[in-house]
Every structure is written in structure tokens, then in C-alpha cells.
Amino acid sequence: HRLHLVSAAMADIASQLDPTHIVLVGDNIYENGAEGDLRTIQHVWYDSFPGAHGSLQRPWHMIQGNHDWRSDPTTQIEFTWSSLNQGGFWNLPGFWYSKRVAANDLTIDFFYVDTLVWTEGFSVLVEVGSRKSMAELKEQQKTWLEKELRESAADWKIVVGHQVMYGDSDHVSEAFGRMSDLNELLQKYEVPIWLNGHSHNQEVVQFKGITYITTGAGCKSKSMEICKEWDAATCNMFLPGPDTKKFFSYYGGFLSLTFLSKGTAELVIYGNSSSSVLFTYRIRNRDHRRWLDVPTPYTFLPKHSCGSINVLSASECCPEGCCRSVPDMHVTQSCTDFCEFSRLRCVSAAGIVRELPHTSLLCGMSELSTELNCSMLLGDIPSQYADLMCHCEPKQNEEES
Q1: Contact between 90 and 34 (Cβ < 8 Å)
Q2: What is the β-pairing status of strands 254-259 and 264-270?
Q3: pLDDT tens sequence across 69-96
Q4: What stretch of H or E contains 61?
């Protein structure tokens, strides 16, 4: 299993580098989060990492991803103070938080952002109860992050989230849509590094002074590279420009960041073994201003509407017709729930056998699998399916609306 190979390789590198801490970028517990059981975290995380390797017995700072939000996300927060948190290595004090660390006579501020809250993911509705509360929670986080970034006097600022800002793989690049305002804050406060998981690959994108790093290859292995060669019609959906992708790997692995000075950090990406160095890259700090006059190329703007109705919590809808989307759902939610949330009706639900790279590539596909019932809960889908695709359309008459 990839997880055990990566865990052993991480332990080897940790014994050599002696890092101040380890960052976990979400989807901490597959498939459906901790499901209210603290012992699940102990079994899945502790037994595989700090419990198995002494060199990994150091602080771990993490955020939560869409799989963690499939069940009660507060369980992973509560584990931070649980007696089951052996050694106190698990650190997740809230949905979002900051942590300052010192290394090589430098100060580094890490800002951990919950991107499911930021994008108002549909699964968040179960936790907060209403559309208004989802919007208010996002605004609280946004206000907090801007204040923290503005007041930080650290030598380096790093923002960590789960969903992809720019990436050439499994999931939509949220910088083009639901996280565009978050990306604007990174630029405004000259953040040099954005770090995310979500897609099960390793990738480096460099654009206008920010290095966007995807490191989601520690466990699952499903991934694909869309733009091996640049084709604007397709690649503008994923990347901000033809020369912005610096590295891509399908294979399992992890990375290290070493802060060498106030101006330079070294990124090293490893494969499944500690001897497998896949990529080394020097990151420049405060490199934004020389890009101010460089225009942003044309970028894909995802569709979020079905007729005149905005489809809430959809990362993207099909460009023609109405909405066919793969929402971030809780195990107690169905496609009927998702469509009704936007005052639409569910036409069909389909199980997705594997993670597909982009909603646009689903458009026009009449069947991904044997059609499932619109009312089927995510937690009840057959085991061969990883997710649900929901097809919504406007209600037929005013009585339904």
C-alpha cells in the first residue's frame, strides 16, 4: 500500500532533516472522515506514522479536506485534546488557525485555511444548518486570514489549504472560481507559497511570484496529467499560462521545505522511497512586484448556473444545458438535496468509479455507470463508486418552485 511506503520514506528523510513539524494537507481519514470515532484517527494516522516511526514523533499540523467533511469534522479537532492523542503530536485546534515556527534563525508563519468553508462546500451545510450560516462562516475565515496576513511580520508566509488553486490534474483549479478571492489575498500580501492536497499527484506551478504546490500523493494513486503539451482550449481550464507548470508526477511521495534565508527556500519532492528525489526547486520570497506589469493570460471561467439559477456549492457546471456536477457532500446528503439547495430538481445521479479530472470532461457523457436513485445518500452508494455526480435542471412549473 502506498501509504506505508510513503510513511517509511518520510521517516528516513525526517531522521536526516530533523524538521520542526510535519504538515498534513487534508483528507486525513479516508473515505468518510473519522465518523465521530476518535479511535479511527488513532488507528489510521497514529499507527501508520508516529506510532510506527520514531522520527515522525514530532508536531503534526493539519487541515481538513472534503473526505474529512463527509462526516463530523469536529471529531478531528477534538482529537487534539484527547487522551488518545499519544505524545500530543496531532495539532488541529480549529477549522482555521495560524502557527509560527522558527528555523535557521528565521520566522515562518503558517496559515491553515479550511477550503471547504471557503468554497461553501455543500457538506458544510450539515454542520452549520443554513445557507446564510455558510456564507457567514466563510466571511469569518476570510476576515481572519486577511487580518493575520496583514499583521504578520514573519520572514516567510505560507498558506495551506486542501483544494487546488492551480493544478493540471484531478480537480478544478479553484483560482478560476470559488477561491479567486483567496488567491487575490495571496497576491496582495505577497505570500510566496501556497500548499494544497486534494489531487493525488505532486505538482509545482509558478505564477506571478507565488509557488503553488500540490502534494496529495501520500495514499491514493488515482491521477492523470491533462496538459502534457499545451493546448489553450483545454489547458486554460487548469493552468494560468503555458510555462507555469514546473513539475508533475503521478507517483506516490511527499516533499520537504527548507528555508535557507529570508530570500530563498528549497523545495525537494520525493517519491515512494527516501532515495528517490524527483524534483528540486529554489523558491524566491517577495518576488511579486516584478510581475505587477505582466498581464494575466486568458483563463477559464467555470460556469455555475443552470438557466438563470446559480447552482450553489458547485465547483462547475456543464457549459451547455444545465448542471451536471460532483458536489462535496456529507454521507447523509443526496443529489436530491444538492439540487433542491439551489431550487432545482434532480434529474439523475450517477456513481463515479474513479476520480475524473474535471467537470467539463463529464459533459455530454450520458452514463458514467448504472444510474443511481436521486435520493440515494452518499454514505449508501455501492462500494465500487468513489463519488456521486448529480444532474440538476429547473423545476417544471411554478408549483414545484
Answers
A1: no
A2: antiparallel
A3: 999 999 999 999 999 999 999 999 999 9
A4: strand 60-62
